[in-house]
Design a protein that fits this description.
Blueprint (H helix, E strand, L loop, with lengths): L2 H18 L3 H9 L5 H20 L11 H17 L4 H4 L16 H12 L15 H16 L1 H8 L7 H8 L13 H26 L3 H12 L17 H14 L3 H10 L3 H4 L2 H24 L5 H16 L16 H7 L16 H19 L8 E2 L2 E2 L2 H27 L4 H12 L18 H15 L3 H4 L4 H4 L2
Antiparallel strand pairs: 1-2
Helix pairs in contact: 1-3, 1-4, 2-3, 2-7, 4-6, 4-9, 6-7, 6-21, 7-11, 8-10, 10-11, 10-12, 10-13, 12-16, 15-16, 18-19, 19-20, 19-21, 20-21
Length: 495
């Protein structure tokens, strides 16, 4: 085996050992809460994941190899695949290694366990579990923890706390980061940048948990929902989600922190360092994001009010804003009955997930920066038709965007849309109706969670093949398509 692949094997082993540690907190909590079935399942899963990681690391521990960008793509992709597959590896190594998804409540099938784990780690928020209310608290906590870690990314966590790996942190960071601004550094060292982002992320999560607790949630529910709110994941500890509390205060708190999770974390960091909120007002992408949210919320609220879905404009606006923010930030919390709203409202709130939030945030979708850029490029082409000899520039934040970036963004959106169409066709071929197929792909490829039709609230009724397509869609969306598709090119594998 070449030095390159041995080095990749070493790094992957270390990351899997790190990810195995995620099974320990719910295991100890299960013991503390006196649960009967789940502690052995969590400890068993930890041991298998840990041993798999050590087995990969040990033969390659002394390999020295300078990592390149393409190696970062491979490591990141394999990390997400391994992290999703290991929770359901019972078919390979027996019952002792299984996570609660399989051998403990909710006793999912192999396919559904893979889907649930991937949904958590990619912060999609789609679920196949028929009843959350009956699950042990340790399993509920584990689901929320998956989303918390997946929000900022397992690989960025590795870069943040394991600089001793000497694996070329820049390559991993660029491969894992989302949006068109991958090369932006907040600090001179990439490991320090990763630590800064994680500090902001953790701080926002603590603030969110405290707000939920003060707002009326129990401490367990507050921490769990904070993990899935700031990570824009969307998992809940109850089937009814936020409707459990029937509290407008909690819903507005969720709206605020979903929005904060959808903003570039680099802005949060700079605002904290400068102790100034002026940074937010000067960011053109954020201004566009806010305009989209406000505009869509008003349109949906007016539709609901005129259609008589709610008694007054106040309730209409609150429910519309909650669902719009939940979908555009690809969080995935749902208002009960949103799929039965008047007219085009359900289609609008589900489809807005395509846009997503800001680059450098925890959200899925295309990202606002890309959408704004391609719209301005389209407008430039229209003006060019009228004035063929004139020179028009595409600008973001008052600065010119290079042609290479414009072409890159246009290519990304084209490939993303192609993947969307192919997945919709694939879903339809499994027997799903067109509405459900569209909603399922929107929910998974955009990492948003809620869909339309049969998948408006859960994927439990979807056939196995469609479930695997949904799993592929979630990984494609989380890795922003190119990071996965680049592995399919012959050029990538040439030394």
């Amino acid at each position: 085996m070449s030095q390159r692949f041995l080095a990749i094997q070493r790094i992957l082993g270390v990351i899997i050992v790190m990810s195995s540690m995620t099974k320990l907190p719910p295991a100890f909590l299960a013991l503390a809460w006196g649960e009967q079935e789940t502690p052995s399942v969590f400890f068993g899963s930890f041991m298998v994941s840990f041993l798999v990681g050590v087995a990969l690391w040990l033969p390659a521990r002394n390999v020295n190899y300078e990592m390149r960008l393409r190696d970062g793509f491979l490591i990141v992709t394999m990390t997400w695949v391994f992290a999703s597959l290991l929770p359901a590896q019972y078919r390979l190594v027996g019952a002792v290694s299984a996570l609660p998804f399989v051998h403990g409540p909710p006793h999912l099938s192999y396919t559904d366990a893979i889907f649930e784990a991937t949904s958590g780690l990619t912060t999609t928020g789609a679920t196949v579990i028929p009843s959350l209310d009956d699950l042990p608290r340790s399993v509920l906590f584990y689901r929320q923890l998956l989303q918390f870690l997946g929000g900022m990314g397992i690989v960025i966590l590795a870069v943040a706390i394991l600089p001793m790996l000497k694996i070329g942190g820049t390559q991993l960071f660029r491969a894992e980061s989302t949006g068109p601004t991958k090369d932006t550094k907040l600090t001179p060292r990439i490991a320090e940048t990763a630590k800064a982002l994680w500090a902001v992320y953790f701080g926002l999560t603590v603030m969110c948990a405290a707000s939920f607790w003060v707002g009326g949630m129990s401490l367990f529910d507050a921490i769990g929902h904070a993990m899935s709110t700031v990570s824009t994941g969307g998992f809940s500890t109850y089937d009814a989600g936020f409707a459990t509390w029937k509290s407008p205060v909690l819903e507005w708190i969720a709206i605020v922190f979903m929005m904060l999770g959808g903003i570039n974390f680099g802005l949060h960091y700079i605002a904290w360092r400068r102790a100034s909120l002026g940074v937010y007002g000067s960011d053109s992408e954020l201004r566009s994001f806010l305009r989209i949210v406000v505009g869509a919320s008003l349109i949906v609220a007016l539709t609901l009010w005129l259609g008589g879905d709610y008694a007054g404009m106040g309730d209409s606006f609150r429910n519309a804003t909650f669902q719009v923010v939940s979908n555009i930030t690809t969080t995935g919390f749902v208002v009960p009955g949103f799929d039965q709203w008047t007219g085009p409202a359900p289609f609008l709130v589900v489809s807005i997930a395509v846009i997503g939030g800001c680059a450098g945030s925890t959200v899925g979708g295309l990202k606002v920066a890309r959408v704004v850029m391609v719209v301005r490029q389209g407008y430039r082409e229209i003006k060019q038709l009228v004035h063929p000899k004139a020179q028009f520039l595409v600008k973001m934040g008052g600065r010119r965007v290079s042609e290479s970036v414009v072409l890159s963004v246009s290519g990304f959106i084209a490939i993303w849309m192609l993947c969307f169409v192919v997945l919709v066709i694939g879903m339809s071929a499994t027997g799903l109706d067109l509405e459900t197929s569209y909603g399922a792909v929107m929910a998974t490829l955009a990492n948003s969670g809620p869909g339309l039709g049969a998948v408006a609230y859960s994927f439990a009724s979807v056939n196995d093949f469609a479930t695997w397509l949904g799993t592929l869609g979630m990984i494609l969306g989380r890795l922003e398509v190119f990071s996965l598709l680049v592995l399919l090119t012959p050029q990538f594998w040439r030394e």
